[in-house]
Amino acid sequence: MAENSLFAILLRKPWWVSMAIATAVAALARMLLPERFVVPGMLGCLPFVVIAGMAAWRQRGLPSAAQSEQWLQRLRTMNPREFSAAVEAAYRHQGFEVQPIKSPGAELALRKYGQTTLLGLRRWKAASTGVEPLRDLQAAMKQHEADAGIFLAGGELGDKARGFAKAADITLVGAAELVRLLHAVGGPPKA
Prior knowledge:
Layout: H1 6-12, H2 15-32, H3 38-42, H4 46-59, H5 65-77, H6 80-93, E1 97-100, E2 108-112, E3 115-120, E4 128-129, H7 132-143, E5 148-152, E6 156-157, H8 159-167, E7 170-173, H9 175-183
Parallel strand pairs: 3-5, 4-6, 5-7
Antiparallel strand pairs: 1-2, 2-3
Helix pairs in contact: 1-4, 2-4
């Protein structure tokens, strides 16, 4: 699915956005169409109802915006050891075997189903991340013969960095995705 398609965008929005669009489409069909076309016109809202249902299902149990901000505040105050432990626990909860590694570009090796993924998390607090840490992760991936890489990026990433990550098979995990990841294990440790 295209990342910027209407369907993909609405799946990332709260469920009620799609439901509001569905209601608007149905109301417009009722008001503007001749009587014999009202029902078929109103059926045009069904895709938005389906998207609302899918978005609601995906978003069930996720933290609210206020909770997410609290978690991010706590994460920003954590030292590297605490942060690494929280990330390790989250990936273990997902069924990964997690091992610390000593490499300039990666801190953790994740293994599952015979696949190895290296995780770069050292610079996640940086306000802006360029291509250099991604190159380091790519070099570590080659050195350790990893199948993929994940880079935790809490700050901004430029277009060059995003393009490099895509070409190098590196998944970028931003702040929102990190909160979802940690939500599965109860969030970051308390201060």
